[in-house]
Amino acid sequence: MSDSISHLLESRAGENFSLHEAYLNSQMVRVLKTIGYDRVYTKARGQYLYDRDGNEYLDLLSGFGVFAIGRNHPTVVEALRDVLSAELSDMVQMDVSLLSGLLAEKIIRLCPSGLERMFFCNSGAEAVEAAIKFARYTTARPNIVHCEHSFHGLTLGALSLMGEEIFREGFGPLLPGCNAVPFNNLEALDRALSRKDVAGFFVEPIQGKGVNLPNDDYLGEAKKLCAKYGTLFVADEIQTGIGRTGKFWAIEHWGVEPDMILMAKALSGGFIPVGAVAMKPFIMDKVFNRMDRAVVHGSTFSKNNMAMAAGLATLRVIEDNGLLDNAAKLGDSIISELSDMIGRYEFLKEVRGKGLMIAVEFGAPKSFSLKTAWSLLETANKGLFCQMVTIPLFSNHRILTQVAGHGMNVVKLLAPLVITEKDRDLIIRSFDQVIADCHKVPGSIWDLGKTLAGHAIKR
Fold it and tell me: Which of 243, 252, 313, 428 can bridge 76 by disulfide, Cβ–Cβ 3.0-4.6 Å?
């Protein structure tokens, strides 16, 4: 029997869920089956997924932002084939590679002024871990400040900056000296930094959990406070960067120049995991300040040729295809057209975002019958209403999306930057129909709601 990948894919097709139940996270399988997301995908191209029955799905999760240029982009595939066929030396360790230098050069040219050095790693969480260490060593200070409701990763150091308790529960004690302040609250940040013991302020320009946007003056004034108190300003652009918001970096919307930018996800092209930290020279020079310190921080697989080639190809695709403009234009259109529905639907409260990072927020209605139905779901499990939106979007309209965070009534859209006007029209038409159906009490969607509430109460 052949063990080739093609033979395994053919001979074991459809065993996805049974294998995961037996050997991996069985609770994830339960979740997918409960909400009806248990499809077996056999192919993917661009912004679309295809199941084994040939059905096409518009992917508005994009791997939590990984697939900015869509799946299986031919330019990235070609770059990876070039690397494999070249039989390059790779990860020699006692060496410096050409491709990592070229990718660093390219990224630095796209960074705000003052960021001139790069550190590569394998993921967003690794980038956060590196930045924590770099900030502490550079400033000789112990503490880190982050924002409430933030998401910076799930490794232990990154988890210490986590703003959602459900992710932290049971994994302590976490890294000491990590403290949260409210997002958009400059007074609280001033108090936290004024003790002059904070090495770095870590902030997502737009918070991923909930798609919370900063006030117009928040990031600029936060940077001034960091400069005043000697704290490094660290912009976590792991999800918001590489074109997601219609600019290459989300921080550009507010004209802020950070001391470090963290990146990952989209830089991979959807193939080879990669993360990175862009920083000001004095940070790199402080950490790696002697020859015997040349290896004080690193990662075995960082700077591998496949990841570097994927990054270079991804940046070329974004530039050659005008994907920043596409994200800005279609994102603005989706936000505008969904916002126009607010006056027609009691449940729909706000649509917000930048580019193709969009939140659709729902809230309690005013009319008695709808309010009663809403309260039933909220009592069973806060945020359950959104599943009444995402499930029919998936099952009836073949649009894949999910809630923006635990216990939130916010649906989050992270469309690939390659979506078209046809995709936009499908998004608007499908949301319109699903939200309209949610206002029909009783109705088939509320039968779904009762089922979901029953599952929640049993848990």
Answer: 313
